[in-house]
Amino acid sequence: MNAASASPSPTSSSSSPSLKARILGTPSAGPLLVLIVFCVIFAFTNPRFLATHNISIILQQTVIIGTLAIGQTLIILTAGIDLAVGAICVLGTIVAGKLVNLGYDPVLSMGFAILLCTLSGLAAGGLVAGLRLPPFIVTLGILGILTAALRLISEGGAFPVRDPFLAWTGTTLKTGGFVLTYGILIMAGLYVFVWYLLNETKWGRHLYAIGNNPEAARLVGIPVRRHLVSVYLLAGLIYGIAAWLALGRIPNADPNALQTANLDSITAVVIGGTSLFGGRGGLIGTLVGALIVGVLRNGLTLAGIDPLWQDLITGILVIVAVALDQMSRRKNR
After folding, report:
1. Residue among 114, 159, 145 nearest 254 (CA)
2. Tally of domains within the chain
3. In a domain, 10, yes or no
4. Does residue 144 have a pLDDT over 90?
5. Positive or negative, the Cα torsion across 134, 135, 136, 138?
6. 216 pLDDT exceeds 80?
7. Which of 58, 193, 284, 293 has the highest Cβ tally under 10 A?
8. Is the pTM of this model over 0.85?
9. Position 223 in a domain
């Protein structure tokens, strides 16, 4: 055997990507870098930013949108979008609060509210998959229906919900100087569970395949319609759980609440590196995206910046994230 044949070929040594290339190729790598940069900037400009109390506040403020963004991620990964996120969540708070205030058992009331949210997701999935209607139109229609229904159920106004069980998710747990709530732990548990579904199960692999090319997925035997229905159903269930977390944050049922939740959840998903065109991204990036929004708003608030500037900067981040995704897709074609 001569030296030339014994030495590894340049092609074989370069065929496997380096650790650096794999890290940089991960969709959540860029958002994580942005989050670190924001944290460093705010830490230097305001010593209160890294205080344990302030970090706890950021996490608590991220709970609702961070949870809603889990369901939004699932739908966007299938190349869809959900404009009824906030309305479905508010449906859960209104129904649970109304039933408890009427004297019904709080556990059954919250369970029924979560069931209604799940059925709302199932209805959306049935229309998208069964009638092949665009997700944008379906969820926009559901948003309109629920907006009117919520005002009818609540009789046009907000009302307090003082039941301890419904407010339980807002109960605090102190570990040293750090304060957590059960809502934060529930959100973290949901991220772990859905991450496992996406990355370690056939269901998750099929979801990515549908997002990349639904027709190709159908041709290889994936039940595309049934799978889409399951995605929307799971998203609805998650929105229902988010309703419980919302009552823990603010023990008040208001039909006008969470009006920006649709855009905020989409923002967290897109900034987190999930493609609006489906098939690319994941939950780690979504969590980072939700934290970016929370850190940005908290840091700018501590600096005394007008909230309008916060919305402006967040909007710029969304446009940049979508533009980078488009450039990445064109490069890979």
Report:
1. 159
2. 1
3. no
4. yes
5. positive
6. yes
7. 293
8. yes
9. yes
Give dist(CA 201, CA 310) in Å, integer. Answer: 38
Query: What are the residues whose beta carbons fall under 8 Å from the beta carbon of 272, sequence distance 6 or more?
Result: 27, 28, 31, 69, 73, 281, 284, 285, 286, 287, 288, 289, 290, 292
Model pLDDT for residues 287-302, shown as the tens digit of each residue: 999 999 999 989 988 8
Per DSSP, helices labelled H in the chain are 3-6, 10-15, 19-25, 29-45, 52-77, 85-101, 106-130, 135-153, 182-200, 202-212, 214-219, 224-249, 261-271, 283-302, 307-332
| Residue 177 placed within a domain | yes
Other beta carbons within 10 Å of 112? 17
> Are the CB atoms for 212 and 77 separated by under 8 Å?
no
Percent of the chain with pLDDT over 70: 89
pLDDT category at 318 given cuts 50, 70, 90 is confident
% of the chain residues with pLDDT over 90: 62
For residue 241 the two structure tokens come to: 């759980």
Residue 20 lies in a domain: no
Angle, in degrees to the nearest 10, between helices 283-302 and 261-271: 110
Residues 21, 36, 246, CA angle at the centre, nearest 5°?
115
Rounded mean pLDDT of the chain? 88
Range of the domain at 82: 29-328
Tokens found for residue 293: 């929004």
Residue 243 structure tokens: 């309703």
- The pLDDT tens digits for 114-141 are 999 999 999 999 999 999 999 999 999 9
Give the pLDDT of residue 89: 97
* CATH number of the domain within which 137 lies: 1.10.3470
CB of 98 within 8 A of CB of 77?
Answer: no
Helices (H), 154-282: 182-200, 202-212, 214-219, 224-249, 261-271
